[in-house]
Amino acid sequence: MKINSFLFSLVILSFSLHSCNDSGEADGPGYYKIKPAVSITVTESGQLESIYNSMVTAPGNWNTEYRIADMSAEGSFVNEGDTVVYFNTESAQSELDEAQSKLELQQEKYAETLKKNEVSIREKKNAIEQLQWQLKINENQVEQARYESDSRLKESELELEKTRLNLKKANDDLAAQQIINQKNADLIKLEISQARVQIERARNTMSDLFLVAPKGGMVIYQRQGWGGDGEKIRIGESVFPQSAILAIPDLNKMQALVKLNEVDRPLVKEGLKAEILVEAYPDTVFSGRVRNISKIVNIEDDATNLKTYDMEVEITSHENFRLKPGLSARITVFLDSLENAYQIPSWCLGWDGKKFFVNEKEDGPIFVRLLQLRDGNAYIRGEVSDEMALRPVF
């Protein structure tokens, strides 16, 4: 194995942080009894969330203010179809009332217009009927005047022509009045249609102000702000259109979200097994696996330049209904299963410039192969056993 000075420095650093007396495994003062290495792990803190969330979002009308009037209590359980959020309805109700008033006014106006149209048409038809009678009278007068003087005949013919002209004009007036009446009625009907459209739009807006649960489950409030890093949404606040308000998580598909230190990133792979200890349930260890590791690095602290990667650890234990989003947890990822290997404190490992070695209590140095240094421990293979007691090399 090729060892560089950096790795050896880690051994020195680990030694400075540990002593024989605080190992708890000493076979006499200053000695450490070797124990088999089971596995190498990475342990981080995290928070639980559901893998699958049914979201309840605000409607998408940018002309409407969505101010929350009430919501189901966070942590409460709701059924599919239950109203979980409703917004202030004052503006929408005002719009609906205005549209309904306009509809009623136009309907009254339409009824009055139809009555006026009926009266005007009846008057025109009565005038036509009178002219038709007058026309018959004039035609009879012309027939009688044929037996009288020429002047009387000519006078009667003029009266007849005059009546014919008046009758034609009356029929034309009737046709024109019918067109005018129809136009007036159509204009009011258009106003009625527009009012009905406004009512329908107002009713839809009103309906949008009441949000229902898409499925049964527990209510989780969402956070405001870009990226959801703000305060949780509260009653009385206004939200942007299409923004997430509530989540109803699938409690049988849970995961832990972890900030993985960049030092450990090369060691952790997707699919590795994990154990999750939830602080709220210290009596249970949940099994899991690494589901996803983000490829984007996060700068956690500008002063220390601490960098992390977002890691998702899926909980694979059955019946996770006790788990809820937001619970704190400790996640242990098993990096490697070590067979025929041993774990010792790093202060028990020495380097002679070419090889690593340990000092057995009685027989002196034994050369070993270093597998990994981690968290103040060295993982080794070699001619050692769990019966041996080691003394520090420094």
Short description:
By secondary structure, this protein is α+β, with helices and mostly antiparallel strands. About 30% of the residues lie in helices and about 35% in strands.
Q: Main attributes?
A:
six-stranded antiparallel β-barrel, alpha+beta, 394 residues, 34% strand, 32% helix, eight-stranded antiparallel beta sheet, disordered N terminus
Secondary-structure map with pairings?
Blueprint: H1 5-17, E1 32-33, E2 35-36, E3 39-50, E4 53-57, E5 66-71, E6 77-78, E7 83-87, H2 90-145, H3 150-208, E8 210-212, E9 217-218, E10 220-221, E11 238-239, E12 244-249, E13 254-261, E14 273-278, E15 285-301, E16 306-315, E17 328-337, E18 342-345, E19 349-351, E20 356-360, E21 364-374, E22 377-382, E23 389-391
Antiparallel strand pairs: 1-23, 2-18, 3-13, 3-17, 4-12, 5-7, 5-11, 6-9, 7-8, 10-12, 13-16, 14-15, 14-17, 15-16, 18-22, 19-20, 20-21, 20-23, 21-22
Helix pairs in contact: 2-3
Beta-strand segment tally:
23
Please tell me the overall pLDDT: 87
Distance between the termini: 22 Å
Unreliable spans are 1-27
Percent of sequence in beta strands: 25-35%
Order of helices and strands: HEEEEEEEHHEEEEEEEEEEEEEEEE
Question: Outline, from the CA principal axes?
Answer: rod-shaped
Main beta sheet strand tally, sense and closure: 8 strands, antiparallel
Q: Class by helix and strand content?
A: alpha+beta
Q: What would you report as the Rg, rounded to the nearest angstrom?
A: 46 Å
In which range does the helix fraction lie?
Answer: 25-40%
The tally of helices reads 3
